Amino acid sequence: MIEPALSALDALFDPIRLAALFAGMLVGMVFGMLPGLGGVAAVSILLPFVYYLDDYSGLAMLLGAISVVYTADTITSVLLGAPGSPASAPTAIEGHALAKKGEAGRALGVGFLASMVGGLVGAAVLFFAIPIAGPIVLMLGTPELFMFALVGLFFASSMIGKDLAKGLAAACLGVLLGVVGPAQAAADFRFTFGQVYLLDGFSLTIVALGLFGVAEVISMLAAGGSISHERMKVTKWGDGFHDFWKSRWLVLRASIIGVFGGFVPAVGASASTWVAYGHAIRSTKDKTKFGKGEIRGIAASEGANNATVISDLVPTLLFSVPGGPAAAIFLGALFSFGYYPGPRMITQNPDLMFLIVWSVALTSIVGAALCFAVTPMLARLTRIPFAIIAAPLILIMVIGAYQSTSTMGDIFMLFLLGGLGWLMKHGGWPRAPALVGFVLAGPMEQYFWLTNQIHGWSWLTRPGVLIIGSIIFIPFLLSAYRWVRAHGQETALQVPVETDEDDAGTPQASKGVALVLAAIATVLFLYALWELFSFNPASRLMPALTIVPGLPLALWLLVRGVREFNNDFERDARELWILVALVAYAFVVWAIGLSIPTGLLIAWMLLAKAKMRLWTSLIYGGVVFAIIRVLFELLRGDAPVGALIPLS
Question: Which residues are CB-neighbours of 384 under 8 A, at least 6 positions away?
Fold first, then answer.
């Protein structure tokens, strides 16, 4: 174990790999500070760039981004009161209350240090999990690996969001996207609609950017105005260090909670952070300060979320089951570089496993130090209009998507999936299960086909399969029992109070959008069922496994949506027009090339949305446009040329 660990450390300190690691760390910090974006958008933006690096450098770049997201979003949560990610909601509650009292430095100090400790605890656990878990993984066959993937998909569906039916339907929809293109077990091309573009299936980069990045940018653009309405002063760092030392054991316990949350596939930081926050409340004598600026709440939540994001990689590396959306993208990158998590990686690539450990540990320390350095400056810039950031952000997403095949289909698909992500966000469908389902579709199909070829259907009686399957069925039965009891005890006096926001401060699901999305999902599953019979028998296995639960769920959500429908589209209209504008941008790029539509898009965002002055917008917009053109050149890709008017 020592020799591979030292070899990995020596490999990491290659100058190019260190540069890639720190470049990823900087991107992760930037996206961590943007409310609603976080790790998924950060690694999605980096994904097209990593393929121009060697495998170690590319993976180090992604790890740099993943490792610091929850450290950096502490800044947003404390200074703005807007969680940089759902897992930072407790930090936003307690930290912003302290910031308004003039104690932002105290809150940030505890948050950064707790995040660093959480990252180091997660890296240490990953270090020791490699040799311990290796022999266990070697005992697993394809039936057990398939069941592990199924368990991860179920946990992603059931633990994220409040509606199990929507979570499961989102997961099925993601798997359906994942089986588009070539079949794993036969010479079939599925669900291509006769389009050459779809013969290779969807790109992971485009799916991740569309479902998460585009949808979030639309929401923030529609909100308009500045990121914050007041300037925050950051002082009293010493108080933060003192409070951290007083809460050091709480931070350690919260980190361990986060580690165990990461071990369970797809539970992720959102659940374990709230468990750790609840532990902080139960272990505190005076509970009256919670919700009003309690430093122990920040210590617990930040220790847990950073530990979780690292321990998420344990099921990813050992069982090919991504612990969360960012880990799902990392898993896709591993596949692209020719690494296959599980027995093969542990026995043949132990140095790569330890490279991950060292990368996480190093960026946890350096990221926390950098956050301390840049926060005072960032606090003075909190009144910047988000549209100024959105202009280059959207264009970088376009570049990232365009690298997949260098055709206009990439840009159209980016905004089409962005529209799907927007519908899912406003319809209350969790997007993480869809992304996890998309990534797992290929490995699940391979495991499922091999399992049936080798064992027939007798694999369902294997002890390992039954034990792993119980992880799904026992909680499912308990949830069903609690649901029946709860509905049986309802009375006419129990009238729910509807508000515009839920307890976490996020908009409630729109019943109108939910109905539209359920109708779209029903049509997609019905078409998939009709198309299924034209495939070879071996090519039908995975689509059938998706359609059998997906279609009834979509029909149930459609019927329920009709019953609950009310015309609440008005509140979403502003965001819908922004989505329409982005789709129109894609069509104009297709018609006349990149330059003119991009200039108009930048001008619209800066002048109409950000309300910048003409000369300032011309200078800033010119710089953004020049950077975009340079990026196209650096990536050795030609910019889109118009189909009607051949401009670039």
Answer: 226, 227
